[in-house]
Structures are given as structure tokens and as C-alpha cells.
Amino acid sequence: MKMLREETVFGPIRSRRLGNSLGINLLPVNGKLCNFDCIYCECGWNDEGRNDRKLPSAAEVESALDAALKKCREEGTRIDSVTFSGDGEPTLNPEFPLIVDRVLALRDKWCPEAKVSVLSNATTAFRPEVLAALRKVDNPIMKLDSHSDILAARINRPSASFSIEKVIASLEAFEGDFILQTMFLKGPDFDSSDREQLDGWMDVVRRLRPRQIMVYTIDRPTPMEGLLKFTEEQMRAMVRPLLDEGFNVQIKG
User: Fold this and answer.
1) Model-wide pTM > 0.70
2) Beta bridge partners of 212
3) DSSP string, 177-209
4) Does residue 72 sit in helix, strand or coil?
5) Rounded distance between C-alpha atoms, residue 39 and residue 41, angstroms
6) Residue 49: what pLDDT?
């Protein structure tokens, strides 16, 4: 079943990785908009999205978030993270840099102890204004599920202009000050635990040296059938070389 967020600000919801998270959806409230079409996406396939293509403005996001944070404060609800996620890639909203500034100001006003997080596929981080905005938030969480264009085509099904090397080069601009997020799973024509795939991915991790790595697996229904998840124990064994080398790896089953 598709899990589309029907509001610009939603939650808070309990996140496996971020705690009590208040979500921000910078994409259409009645559809999905993404330059990836991941086989495991809880929002379904892109072509199943509704016809809504209206993106919320910075003013609309600011108003909705201000009201939500005020309500959380009044009700005594703790917010661990204000999180840009939603139904697709948040940085596709053309006002993303402006919205980041306004969200940071509202966080400081209502819940200064909370982190501001962005879940992104990193495909637009080559744009200076997007990179600058991502570097302002506490947790820029950048997706990288594989080390090659071939595997990315099988797992993430990106737009035609996608290049793994371009994404990696963009991530190097963070100078290690970001969180790398990777989905481990098995499909009909790939396996994240395959030695060649795993070694290639770990070499990219060593090149980028992110401050933290989030490794996780399937937790909700997926649009592609037949996908298999890993246990935490299996994933820990898969990333053991990185753990032994001192990398900060968070593993969530």
C-alpha cells in the first residue's frame, strides 16, 4: 500500500533512525514527485502518483510548521527531529534553500533542542545553492545504495541524467560532514551482500568518510514484489570491516 503524506507538515511519527520526527513534505500533498523510482519506496511507483503537481511555497511551509511546532510545545510533545522527507526528493522544490532558512528559524523559536534533518538522494547537491542549504542543517542524510550506475539502475531507477560518480563528487564537497544512508536488500537481479557490490560500496565510504553511516533494510511494503530484507546481525557482519576501521555505523533492521 502506498504511504503518501497528505499534508505539508505531518506527524510527529516515530522514526527508526531519528526518534520522534515531525515531517515536512515539500512535494505535492496528493502525489509523488521524484527523480528516483526506487523499487523499495513506501510511496509506490512514480507512475502511480496522482496528477497533483503543486508544490508548497516557502510561506505555506512556514505557516504550517509554525502551527505544528506551537501545538507540540503546548501539548508537551517532544520533537527530536524536524525532517524533510515526504513523497519524493525534497530538494526538487525550487524554494528549498529559502525553506531551509525558515525552518531553522522556527526550530530555534519553538524547539531549539531538536535537530533539522534532510533525507535526500543527493542528486541535486551539485547545485551550489542546494549544497549550501544542505550544509546548514544538522543532519544532511544522503542516500547511496550502490557504487555503480548499473546497480543504481536496478535499485533506484534514476532519471536518465544520473551518474554515480557525479553524486560521489557532490558528496565530497561535504568534507565528511554528512550522514550516508544505504538500504541493504535482496532483489531478483542484485544482492547488497554480494562481495563485489559490498566491497565497491565500502570503497566509496572510505573515499567520502562521512561522519555517520545509516545502514537499514526493508521495513514496509514495497512496490516491487519478492524483495528480501536482512537481519541486523547479517548487516553487522556485512559492514564489519568499516566497524573495525572505526567508522560510525548505525544499523537498523
Assistant:
1) yes
2) 179
3) -SEEEEE--EETTEETT-HHHHHHHHHHHHHH-
4) helix
5) 6
6) 60
